[in-house]
Automatic annotation (TrEMBL):
It comes from the Bacteria. Gene3D superfamilies: Bordetella uptake gene, domain 1, Periplasmic binding protein-like II. The lineage of its organism: Bacteria, Pseudomonadati, Pseudomonadota, Betaproteobacteria, Burkholderiales. This is Tripartite-type tricarboxylate transporter receptor subunit TctC. Keywords: Receptor, Signal. Pfam families: TctC. Belongs to the UPF0065 (bug) family.
Amino acid sequence: MRKSAKTLFAAIALLGCIGARPAIAAFPDKPITMIVPFPPGGPTDAVARVAANKAGQLLGQQIVVENRAGAAGAIGASAIARARPDGYTVGLATVSTHGTAPHLYADLAYDPIKDFTPLSNLAGSPNILSVHPDFPAKTLKEFAGIIKSNPGKYSYANAGAGGVNDLGMIWFLQEMGGSMVSVPYRGSAPALTDTIGGTIPVIFDNYPSSLPYIQSGRLRALAITGTERNPQLPSLPTFQEEGYKDYNVTSWYGLVAPAGLPADVTQTLSRVFADAVNDPETAQKLAEAGAFPIGNTSDEFSAQIERELNLWRDVIQKGNFKLQ
């Protein structure tokens, strides 16, 4: 009897100890850091801050945006890849970091597939082909005719050698069957300045930075990328409408985490950020920054990254493009 009582008391005590163990904290129970691999003030930074603000509200935790610019996004992307895979460090991936850079830099410090957990492509932004008002072409068809009749005669401005604006124009010239001289600048602002001033006749640039100059008449837009016309430029046709069915250069801003992120954390972050960017108020803020919400799943974003890698590999190889 005494032995049975002792056994009973021991069992009760054991259950008490088990019950006293602290519960596993629900994710997230502390602030999250979001690394942006480009400087403050640019489109990637704008999308990151808009998405982080709403996602933080939905998660009930602050999301701190940290800019780590340099090497065309490679420094920030490497920092994301090296972080602890616990969900408390995420970052922005772009067509530059996860589409073109892996084919341009032999010593890249990260693998765009193996070193990351894709979470959601948050937003995208179209690109526009524009000319100085004195340029003779008023339509994309006229532009193609002039360029093909004068191989290598004309130049185009872009925001940086090997960037999506440069390679996007190279791809279009491949589709069109023409040749031009690429003039790279350190960002869109100086490229636009020289095009508006007439130093360079043509520019292939991001929609947000070109829009005010198109609306003011200082640039003449010929075509915009994407599958649908932009509501702010309803008369501007898409490249696809103009006959280039397979051509679509979109700047995209996706959320990634380090490889090895637990499945439940992956699902939580993917769902919350997708909900965040598709919130009507957040979508409006993205539109003001020149972007449109996407918010796809982790699997969909993973497949997109692989498609982008294959696409830009082909463009770069076909053009025999090399950074000087």
